[in-house]
Amino acid sequence: MTRHGNRWLLFLSLLLVAAALGLALLPPGSAARSAACAAPTGWLRIAGENGESIPANEVLAGAAAADVVLLGEQHDDEDHHRWQLQVLAGLHALRPQMVVGFEMFPRRVQPVLDRWVAGELSAPALLVQTGWEEVWNFPAAFYLPLFEFVRINRLPMLALNVDARLTRAIGDKGWDAVPASEREGVGRAAPASSAYRDFLFSVYREHAHGQGGRDSRGFRHFVEAQLNWDRAMAEALAARLASAQGDGRPPLVVGVIGSGHLRHGHGVPHQLRALGVGRVVTLLPLAFAEACREMQPGLADALFVLPSKPALPVPPPRLGVQLEDIAGAGSAVRVQAVTAGSLAEKSGLMAGDRLLEVAGRPAGKAAAVIALVRAAAPGTWLPLRVGRGDTTLDIVVHLPPE
Q1: Per DSSP, what are the bridge partners of residue 282?
Q2: Best exposed site among 38, 188, 230, 287 by fewest CB in 10 Å?
Q3: What's the pLDDT score for residue 375?
Q4: How many angstroms separate the first and last alpha carbons of the chain?
Q5: Are 283 and 72 in contact (CB under 8 A)?
Q6: 166: helix, strand or coil
Q7: Angle at which helices 140-152 and 110-117 pack, to 10 degrees?
Q8: What would the DSSP string read from start to end of 125-160?
Q9: Cα separation values, 141 from 78, 82, 120, 123, 368, Å
């Protein structure tokens, strides 16, 4: 990968973080509203600047009457996934004919998902054959209850995403420069709204390499990469809906997707509308502590405010890198991108480096590197042997204390 390509991967990685964490960039001057804007828990509809409580049966009945329901999440929040499972169960009770699509899987693993639903794979086999640790790298335990729900109810399971290499290529060269044969069948996305471009530009400018204005080639490619990502998921959902037309009442198509792709109807909902899918309902979870700050008109069709919970133990350490296995390279793993401000950046790791050893052990595969880092004790020093060009370096990462 070129240095230019790695730069774009860093941009897209930052956007992925924004989507994963469900970040909403509030307009200047927006202040936290009073706690009266949200009940301690339960469903809300935004009314003015406050939340209006809605009975759960009313929300679920409205969603079950739609064509597509989009369930948002913060990828690393286990309660968001418990909430998604609760909503899936409620919708399934009202409309048993259902299809569930997941952002977490690229399209190429669809045959694996089909075998999982058919009962031919164990959970560990599902994770291995879909390359979970390399492709998604959020705790599988958060998602397995959703996958098991789909399996035990024999519901079709859709892979909504595209390969990360396509997203990087568009961010590097632009959509038009990527051959049609390499676009995984994804069509040209509907243009972004001005509000969505504002959000994307704010993310773009957060990164040190995000140089240039709104009319720059760099920002244009950045937007095209995100729109293609949104479009791919929308097309997968719309295609499944269209394939069932004429067979009586089509199934309810549900998408499990990061909230950053759904907020204010800018991402996937916008692309679904452009594809002619009109009855789309977006439901989002919010933490109680953040509800008043996050709540804005048009954020979603309904919100679920999750109750506060005790602080979790310190999570396992993360270097702050994206990794890929080097085909045919034995025990080397390439650093695709380094997150700004991360342990990796502070320790001197760079995009393009090759990890040869971690804590004295051969790096092997990206999944093995991740496991070794997470197993390291807080406050310790983690030695890395790194290949950079023709040079071998020894880098030591100081993990934060517990």
Answers
A1: 70
A2: 188
A3: 82
A4: 36
A5: yes
A6: helix
A7: 60
A8: HHHHHTTHHHHT-S-HHHHHHHHHHHHHTT--EEEE
A9: 9, 11, 20, 10, 18
| CB 103 within 8 Å of CB 256 | yes
pLDDT in tens, 176-215: 999 999 999 999 999 999 999 998 888 777 664 556 778 8
Q: In the beta sheet, which residues pair with residue 395?
A: 384
Give the integer Cα–Cα distance in Å for 324 and 313: 29
Tell me the three-class secondary structure of 165-224, residue by residue: HHHHHHHHHCCCCCCHHHCCCCCCCCCCCHHHHHHHHHHHHHCCCCCCCCCCHHHHHHHH
Q: 397 - beta bridge partners?
A: 382
Give the helix/strand (H/E) hosting 391: strand 391-398
The CATH class that applies to domain 321-398 reads: mainly beta
Domain 3-306 in this protein, CATH class: alpha beta
- From the number of C-beta atoms within 10 Å of its C-beta (0-12, 13-18, 19+), residue 266 rates as buried
DSSP 325-337: E-TT-TT-EEEEE
d(CA 118, CA 128): 17
Residue 27: which pLDDT band, with cuts at 50, 70 and 90? very low
Dist CA 162 CA 166 (whole Å): 7
Instruction: State which amino acid sits at residue 164.
Output: A
Task: Please say whether the beta carbons of 22 and 71 come within 8 A.
Answer: no
Which residue from 200, 225, 226 is spatially nearest to 214, judged by alpha carbons?
200
Outline which parts of the chain fall under CATH 2.30.42.10.
321-398
pTM for this prediction: 0.72
User: Which regions of the chain carry the CATH code 3.40.50.11550?
Assistant: 3-306
